[in-house]
Amino acid sequence: DGGITQSPKYLFRKEGQNVTLSCEQNLNHDAMYWYRQDPGQGLRLIYYSQIVNDFQKGDIAEGYSVSREKKESFPLTVTSAQKNPTAFYLCASSIGGTANNEQFFGPGTRLTVL
Amino acid sequence: DAKTTQPNSMESNEEEPVHLPCNHSTISGTDYIHWYRQLPSQGPEYVIHGLTSNVNNRMASLAIAEDRKSSTLILHRATLRDAAVYYCILRDVFAGGTSYGKLTFGQGTILTVHP
Fold first, then answer.
1. Which pLDDT does position B37 carry in this prediction?
2. pLDDT averages per 10-residue partition of chain A, 114 residues
3. Distance (Å, whole) CA B39 – CA B42
């Protein structure tokens, strides 16, 4: 089955630790995205990548880093510089980034920093 | 980005049609109208999108006003599995820079379906 996988589903970390969230897709999509969702809120864009070895900051990139070494993988690292890292993190992909393309979302990772 | 306005919540009974409205009075000629929904503790799911003409797919129908300042997502027969937050989103054809491909989610409409 084609789709997007994110692991783990739940993640707990101590304050001050970096943590990396996994996102893999087998849809052969060029574009990938990371969003953050806080309780009762809509999604906000953290980073996006249009193609392998290229990525751009979104609206709330501070305290986060990404890499795009392979087409199917777009891991997100939440660094200790992120002041409020507890949130629901969602990865998405699309064929391209145009307005006529739908985005496919993974199941999300719920990160809790203690 | 052009903004959308949706009711905070709506209720429906199972097997009845549901009409979810969205106002987008500042829409530009190059904005596509997208609808996504999000079930509790899951990632959003694409529902439908359109530009000017009404659209139908296996999940829903999208009715777009002639002046494009409003649209309505129609679920023809609501089921309990349709209970979710529904988001109406505008996406500009010419969006670039940090807007590339971005979906800007508002508060959405919480749809409750009663058995």
1. 97
2. 88 92 95 92 91 92 97 96 93 83 93 92
3. 6
DSSP states of A45-101: EEEEEEETTEEEE-SS-TTEEE--SBTTB--EEE-TT-S---EEEEEEEES-SSTT-
Averaged pLDDT, B53-61: 93
Which of A77, A71, A22, A64 has the alpha carbon at shortest distance from A49? A71
Judge whether residue B88 has pLDDT over 70: yes
Entry field: residues in chain B: 115
* Contact status of B104 with chain A (Cβ, < 8 Å): yes
Predicted local distance difference test score (pLDDT) of residue B81 = 95
Residue with tokens 């009404």: B54
**Could you say which of B30, B100, B106 has the minimum Cβ distance to residue A50?**
B100
B41 in reach of chain A (CB within 8 A): yes
User: Are residues B43 and A90, on separate chains, in Cβ contact within 8 Å?
Assistant: yes
Q: Report yes or no: A96 at the B interface, CB cutoff 8 Å.
A: yes
Q: What is d(CA B21, CA B31) in angstroms, rounded to the nearest whole number? A: 17
Rounded to whole angstroms, the Cα distance separating B49 from B34 reads 4
